[in-house]
């Protein structure tokens, strides 16, 4: 079953990629792990509607499909998940509100969009906090991060698990960017950069001399196409699978923030489920998150190379250039660390240090 599903999806994925991007194939992605485990007892049926922001070729979509496969197989079809991609049901903020009112069962926002509910998650938005994927994994799996997921209790949102949106990169349609001065513009205006609806991201791009504009992800492609904003920042795989390269000529490998995704269920839906189904949902969420992180890692470098092959001029910063971005954004730490909690930041920095040993 899984093999058939996977080959179908690969075809769908490749078709979507091929349709949207004439000559690209999706990377040689790993198949999802075989689904094992007994069929759980019958506790009734649930058809879960899940809205996500990214496209059918994204790791976010492919892993959400796998999540649904696990539940369907382990409940003998009593739980099914219908995944609606491409922000078609709304953006991250809107879909979380739909979970709170019970008009949607699941969504998968970037942690940055959720800091209005759990401010400590802004730690992940601090620039250059997480130097590599190993550190990011260690932090997401840490008690301090898991406690942030627990802190959603009572908001109407049941946060299940972290996975990887990834390292954010700058793209723009105005000029190559190698330094913060290129962002600010010396004899020209600063770049207008779309950011997520998150105050730390606004602060980062203000510190770099840009004109940041918070905007829902679903509106971003047309805003770039119409020149409403010059640029945006997202992982290479999102830039590729959302076709931003069609309206962005320049990329800069800033890796300024590592963003997690958070898989969420409406508390109303969660509360209607029997304990055995709740356990299974948590297990399926963890398994699909592991798979999503694997796919995201497989997509990362491949996406950058694909973007270059399609004509995007990508600047890879040397150590000195990277240091200039880190120095320019240091004031964001100074402003936000006390608000997030110096103790939390210190704990995370210790986890980062330990992860390199
Ligand atoms: C997709 C968003 C997106 C995020 C953004 O729903 O808004 O730029 O990086 O991936 O969560």
UniProtKB/TrEMBL annotation:
Name a Pfam family for this protein.
Answer: DctP
- What processes does the entry annotate via GO biological process terms? transmembrane transport
- Name the CDD domains for this protein: PBP2_TRAP_YiaO_like
Q: Which UniProt keywords apply?
A: Signal, Transport
Q: Which domain of life is it from?
A: Bacteria
Question: Which family does the similarity line name?
Answer: Belongs to the bacterial solute-binding protein 7 family.
Full protein name: TRAP transporter substrate-binding protein
Q: Where is the signal peptide?
A: 1-24
Keyword Signal among record annotations = yes
List the NCBIfam families hit by this protein, alphabetically: dctP, TRAP_S1
One annotated Gene Ontology cellular component of this protein: outer membrane-bounded periplasmic space
Specify the species.
Answer: Vreelandella salicampi
Q: Where in the cell is it found?
A: Cell envelope
- What InterPro entries does the annotation carry? DctP_fam (IPR018389), TRAP_DctP (IPR004682), TRAP_DctP_sf (IPR038404)
Q: Does the keyword Transport apply?
A: yes
């Amino acid at each position: 079953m899984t093999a058939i599903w996977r080959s179908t999806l690969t075809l769908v994925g490749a078709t979507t990629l091929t349709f949207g991007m004439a000559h690209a194939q999706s990377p040689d992605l790993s198949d999802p792990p075989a689904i094992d485990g007994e069929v759980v007892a019958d506790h009734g049926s649930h058809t879960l509607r899940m809205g996500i922001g990214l496209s059918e070729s994204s790791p976010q979509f492919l892993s959400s499909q796998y999540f649904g496969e696990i539940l369907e197989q382990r409940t003998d079809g009593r739980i099914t998940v219908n995944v609606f991609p491409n922000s078609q049901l709304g953006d991250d903020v809107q879909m979380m509100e739909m979970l709170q009112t019970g008009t949607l069962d699941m969504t998968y926002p970037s942690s940055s969009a959720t800091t209005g509910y759990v401010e400590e998650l802004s730690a992940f938005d601090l620039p250059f906090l997480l130097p590599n994927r190993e550190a990011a994994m260690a932090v997401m799996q840490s008690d301090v991060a898991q406690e942030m997921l627990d802190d959603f209790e009572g908001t109407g949102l049941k946060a299940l698990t972290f996975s990887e949106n990834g390292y954010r990169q700058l793209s723009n349609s105005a000029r190559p960017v190698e330094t913060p001065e290129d962002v600010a513009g010396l004899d020209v205006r600063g770049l207008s950069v779309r950011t997520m609806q998150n105050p730390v991201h606004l602060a980062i791009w203000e510190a770099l001399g840009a004109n940041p504009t918070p905007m829902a992800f679903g509106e971003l492609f047309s805003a770039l196409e119409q020149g409403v904003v010059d640029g945006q920042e997202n992982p290479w795989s999102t830039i590729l699978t959302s076709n931003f390269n069609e309206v962005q000529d320049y990329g800069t490998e800033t890796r300024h923030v590592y963003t997690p995704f958070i898989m969420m269920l409406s508390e109303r839906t969660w509360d209607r489920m029997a304990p055995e189904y709740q356990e299974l949902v948590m297990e399926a969420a963890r398994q699909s998150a592991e798979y999503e992180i694997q796919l995201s890692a497989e997509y990362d470098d491949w996406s950058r190379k694909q973007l270059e092959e399609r004509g995007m001029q990508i600047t890879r910063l040397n150590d000195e250039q990277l240091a200039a971005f880190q120095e320019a954004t240091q004031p964001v730490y100074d402003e936000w660390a006390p608000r997030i909690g110096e103790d939390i930041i210190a704990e995370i920095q210790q986890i980062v240090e330990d992860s390199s040993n």
